[in-house]
Amino acid sequence: MKTQNLTSFSEFHLLGFSEDPDLQLILFGLFLSMYLVTVLGNLLIILAVISDSHLHTPMYFFLSNLSLSDICFISTMVPKMIVGNVTQNRVISYVGCLTQMSFYILFGCMDHMLLTVMGYDRFVAICYPLHYHTIMNPCSTASLLLVSFLVSVLDSQTHNTIALQITCFKNVEIANFFCEPSQILNHTCSDPFTNTISMYLFAFIFGFFPISWNLYSYCKILSSILKVPSSGGRHKAFSTCGSHLSVVCLFYGTSIGVYLGSAVLQSPGKGMVASLMYTVVTPMLNPFIYSLRNRDMHSALKRLCRITV
User: Fold this and answer.
1) What is the pLDDT of residues 190-249, one digit of tens each?
2) 3 state DSSP class of 106
3) Can you say whether residue 13 is alpha, beta or left, with left for phi > 0 and alpha for psi between -120 and 50 degrees?
4) By three-state DSSP, how is residue 155 classified?
5) Is the pTM of this model over 0.90?
6) E strands along 59-175, which residues?
7) Of 220, 226, 240, residue with least CA distance to 118
């Protein structure tokens, strides 16, 4: 496709998972069910935390905000993809593409930050249990949430500012089911090396420190758990952070896979599958991990179901 500037086009073309008409109904049912499971599962987590006074703690406060962020994150991309599969119209406007990209980065970074502060919460609870309520007081909890949101807005607006400065694109076909930042930057008429370096620089800045902190905190947590003399005590201490550790591994594993896949994988289909794991499968599995592996959340969900019935 020829080089085009902003005056000659006003839309992008997204890629579908399949052009086979016989598969569209199957894909529609699959993605719609995954979306509904994700939204309903995370809503249940939020309602359980709100309705149960036993869960009015910093850890579950951050968990409910993580669930809300996951709902917003998946709603940024999946409804558009579902409609595109049904109507076979995968066109998205230039403004809509930038808007989708901004919210994708905003809520994706919010997930990163919330997992980081949840790691900090577990670090304080296990390594400094006697000072936990002093350190994790309501004021500091609200401050951590505010900082997470402000950092996410900064990350989103930084990418948006770079995208708004682009006035020329070599291609308007995006090889993914949503407006992924790397795809947009790679289609600019300017040197792609500069755009790629910029993308990975921001990924390093906004991703390296959360990942580093989670690694550090769990090294300290593991060291503290190993010092517990009884096996029952070690199991109880580790069970308080097992769900968070599972979500961290799933989230960072898939997100790193997407970034590496965008640089290594040459097949658009493989890149879309990697993106699907990160944007859809991970938010869908989070409620199951926290409800099945967490005894308090499991009990709260049972009480919520009894109240509803």
Assistant:
1) 665 666 676 667 767 777 788 888 888 888 888 888 887 777 777 776 777 777 788 888
2) helix
3) beta
4) helix
5) no
6) 91-93, 168-169, 173-174
7) 240
